[in-house]
Backbone:
């Protein structure tokens, strides 16, 4: 049987001056866990949103973006 190496190796690194906020979501019926990594930090922040509350999720994402913009004095990138 043939063995396949499924390891992904990135050819680029994330610049420390990046203005991107990385976010992950863990969804359940009761609550949503939102983790974020803001520019120039190495600490992952944890936030909780009531399950199904899309308005609260958008408010939190907007808050995280505004905080990142203040931190780096630039507009944080957002998906187009």
Residues:
């Amino acid at each position: 049987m043939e063995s396949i190496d499924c390891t992904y190796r990135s050819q680029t690194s994330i610049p420390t001056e990046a203005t991107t906020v990385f976010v992950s979501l863990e969804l359940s019926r009761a609550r949503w866990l939102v983790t974020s990594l803001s520019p120039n930090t190495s600490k992952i922040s944890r936030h909780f949103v009531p399950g199904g509350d899309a308005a609260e999720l958008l408010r939190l994402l907007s808050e995280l973006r505004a905080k990142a913009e203040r931190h780096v004095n630039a507009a944080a990138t957002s998906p187009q």
Summary: Residues 22-72 form one domain. The helical segments are 54-72. Strands lie at 22-27, 31-37, 45-50.
